[in-house]
UniProtKB/TrEMBL annotation:
It comes from the Bacteria. This is GTP cyclohydrolase 1 type 2 homolog. Belongs to the GTP cyclohydrolase I type 2/NIF3 family. GO terms for cellular component: cytoplasm. Transmembrane segments: none annotated. The keyword Transcription regulation does not apply. Keywords: Metal-binding. Homohexamer. One of its GO terms (molecular function) is metal ion binding. PANTHER family: GTP CYCLOHYDROLASE 1 TYPE 2 HOMOLOG (PTHR13799:SF14), NGG1 INTERACTING FACTOR 3 (PTHR13799). A divalent metal cation binds at residues 67-68, 106, 235, 239.
Length: 281
């Protein structure tokens, strides 16, 4: 069976993650690669960085599908003297294409937050925290119910076991003994969603990159017990569960057309934080 082309793979990716859904400031789509080239092996990763490039070369990948853009703010150079330029040069040298699905994957159905919700134990129906104006099934974040109530302490333990391990772990704000049933999640940085009624109605909100002032002001405004507990996870860890979901979706779509592609989910930890330290008495 002859291999499929990069153009055909991109068509399937953009059916699932329409670039039109991306935020205006975002940079999604094909970064480098020839649409006419054959694609047999596809590596899914959160970050397009050197270590992921190494993994792609070692495995013999033809394409990297990354969640985060390589050049989010644009550039005037792809000089190999820069880290990002060096990655572009290496990928081109080894005939490896790079494609990005970012905020368009965040709001997709299913998308990044659906995968996060499943990873931390939500099994039933999910709803967007902030539905898209043109399709209420899509949108930022997800909210749903746990199969059975549990304490915040128990849920935090369940969540940390369901997410890939990072030095960051989980930071929890709230009474460890409070009962939680309704859980709101948002993959990636989510403190912009703290003001949503759908977040305030939950028992716990799990996201990443919660800043001190927005989190503190939110907790003060909802005390005592009038709003959700907060769980802050590593940014990379909240988005990693999307990778196997996206890989399975693409492989299944291609198989339905009689085309077999080999997918692989990168387990290279590209979280920026590598260790923690505690002050000793």
């Amino acid at each position: 069976m002859s291999p499929t082309t990069l153009a055909a793979i991109i068509a399937e990716l953009e059916h699932a993650y329409d670039p039109a859904w991306a935020e205006p400031w975002d940079a999604v789509g094909l970064v480098c690669g020839d649409p006419a080239r054959p694609v047999r092996r596809i590596l899914f990763a959160v970050d397009p960085v050197a270590s992921v490039g190494d993994e792609a070369v070692a495995w013999g990948a033809d394409l990297i599908v990354a969640h985060h853009p390589l050049y989010l703010r644009g550039t005037t150079t792809v000089s190999a003297a820069t880290p990002k330029g060096a990655l572009v040069h290496r990928l081109i040298k080894h005939d490896i294409a790079l494609y990005t699905a970012h905020t368009n994957a965040d709001v997709a159905d299913p998308g990044v937050s659906d995968a996060l919700a499943r990873a931390v134990g939500l099994t039933g129906a999910l709803r967007p925290l902030q539905p898209s104006a043109d399709d209420p099934r899509r949108g930022l974040g997800r909210v749903g119910d746990l199969p059975a109530p549990m304490t915040l302490r128990e849920f935090a333990g369940q969540a940390v076991r369901g997410l890939p391990r990072t030095a960051w772990g989980l930071r929890v704000a709230g009474d460890p003994g409070r009962t939680v049933r309704t859980v709101a999640v948002s993959g990636g940085a989510g403190d912009s969603l703290l003001g949503l009624d759908s977040v305030r109605a939950a028992d716990v909100f799990l996201t990443a990159d919660l800043r001190h002032h927005p989190a503190a002001e939110f907790l003060q405004a909802t005390e005592p017990g009038g709003g959700p507990a907060l769980i802050d996870a590593a940014h990379w860890a909240t988005e990693w569960p999307w990778l196997p979901q996206a890989a399975d979706l693409l492989a299944s779509a291609m198989a339905a057309k009689g085309i077999n592609v080999e997918t692989r989910v990168s387990r290279t930890v590209t979280d920026a934080w590598t260790t923690t330290a505690q002050c000793e008495d």
